[in-house]
Amino acid sequence: MTPRHQKEAAVSAAALLAAHPGATQSAVKRRAIRMLRSPGNLQDSPFIWLAPAFAFLVLFYTYPLLDVIRLSFTNASLIEPDYVYTFNSYRRLFDDPNTLRSLKTTALFAAGSVTLQLAVGMALALAINAGVKRHLAGTVAVRTAILAAWVVPGVIVGVLWKILLSSSSYGVLNYWIETLSGQSIGFLSDVDLVLATTILANVWRGVAFTMIILYAGMQKIPAELYEAAVVDGAGAIAQFRFVTLPMLKPIIFIALVLTTINSVNTFDLILALTGGGPARASEVVGLTAYQQIFKFMNLGRGAAIAVLLLMVNLAMTLVYLKLMRADRVTE
Questions:
Q1: 37 three-state secondary structure
Q2: Among the listed residues 143, 112, 120, the one whose alpha carbon sits nearest the alpha carbon of residue 270
Q3: β strands within the chain, DSSP E
Q4: Are 187 and 193 in contact (CB under 8 A)?
Q5: What is the pLDDT of residue 68?
Q6: Omega before 81 cis (within 30°)?
Q7: Which end of the chain has the least Cβ crowding within 10 Å, N or C?
Q8: pLDDT along the chain (331 residues), means of 10
Q9: Contacts of 211 (CB under 8 A, 6+ apart)
Q10: DSSP letter for each residue of 225-284
Q11: Closest CA to 78 of 300, 308, 304, 305
Q12: What is the pLDDT of residue 203?
């Protein structure tokens, strides 16, 4: 019992003793403790506050996750109501050469997206931070403009970039390229360019997140560190290397983990932009799972691909956690 509860029990016991002068002290004490443990005092327990979040987690996350894992061991489809339990979904998944191709495409897409989002996000955060320190006008408008891309849904971003880069008559950029050079560029139809195009579109959408999280981290760096670096004769690059980067390391790690998981799971933007084509050159694992379930109605195989994607995410998270722990031990 906490000191606060002991105090409340003493107050309750004194009140009961005053109301029942003939009762023994032990009986009054037991009754006071029972009153404190009554449902009216459950508000002091953390479990009652955690119960809604726990119920939400079980109902909308744990149960669907376990059901997807169960369905991955079946031959269920969206057309036939009956199914049997089998390993054929996983057997066909690993026998299919397109699985390895989708994994490779996903790895390239995630690596390119994460690298560019961190690099461009860092450059934007440094520029805005420098502008704020110099009290330049328009920094708030710049931040708002960058964040506007982040709140746009992935499907809308895919449609916007398709309108911009399409080789058909409505492609805005290709219209000007064809007018100036006489031929268009197959941003979305060339197998050698389409993956780079999807990475660029994903970077445009996600760079706002890395920019804002790195900019927030820069606000926590003490100004005295930069003043000491200036006294030691450090220039802008040296200040970035020896002050900004070391102080931002935990923030960079968080941005790295979140952007990696988000990039690996991205499929809505690619679905609207290229549909995985041409010749499956931009088909990532998440899009493969979506198409197996909602295009080919193969629920069991789509669930197996989703479980494979889950394993990839868990493996990456464990690797990042191990690297972070090793870095803390080194420090």
A1: coil
A2: 112
A3: none
A4: yes
A5: 92
A6: no
A7: C
A8: 57 59 64 58 71 90 92 89 87 86 92 94 91 82 78 88 84 86 87 93 91 91 90 88 90 89 90 88 91 90 91 86 74 63
A9: 120, 121, 124, 125, 128, 146
A10: HHHHHHHTT--HHHHIIIIIHHHHHHHHHHHHHHHHHHHHH--HHHHHHTTT-STTTT--
A11: 300
A12: 93
- With beta carbons less than 8 A apart as the criterion, state whether 187 and 209 touch: no
Phi-psi category of residue 171: left, alpha or beta, with phi > 0 → left and psi -120 to 50 → alpha: beta
Among 224, 229, 206, which Cα is nearest to 154's?
206
Contact 252, 166 (CB under 8 A): no
Among 279, 260, 252, CA closest to 191: 279
**Token code pair at residue 279:** 């010749």
Locate 4 and state its tokens.
């606060």
Q: To which residue do tokens 């997140």 refer? A: 209
**38: region left, alpha or beta (phi > 0 left; psi from -120 to 50 alpha):** beta
Q: Tell me phi and psi for residue 73, to 5 degrees.
A: -100, 25
Q: Which two tokens stand for residue 175?
A: 């219209």
- Give me the residue label for tokens 């009140």: 15
Tokens of residue 153, six digits: 């849904």
Torsion (CA) 17, 23, 27, 28 in degrees, nearest 10: -10
On whether the CB atoms of residues 309 and 264 are closer than 8 A, the answer is yes
Using DSSP's 3-state secondary structure scheme, residue 85 falls into strand
Helices (H) and strands (E) in the chain, counts: 16, 0
pTM for the structure as a whole: 0.78
Cα–Cα dist 2/73, whole Å: 50
* CA gap 80, 111 in Å, rounded: 39
> Is the CB of residue 287 less than 8 Å from the CB of residue 267?
yes
CA 117 to chain centre: 13
Nearest-5° Cα angle at 6, 5 to 12: 85
CA atoms within 13 A of residue 55's CA, in its CB half-sphere: 6
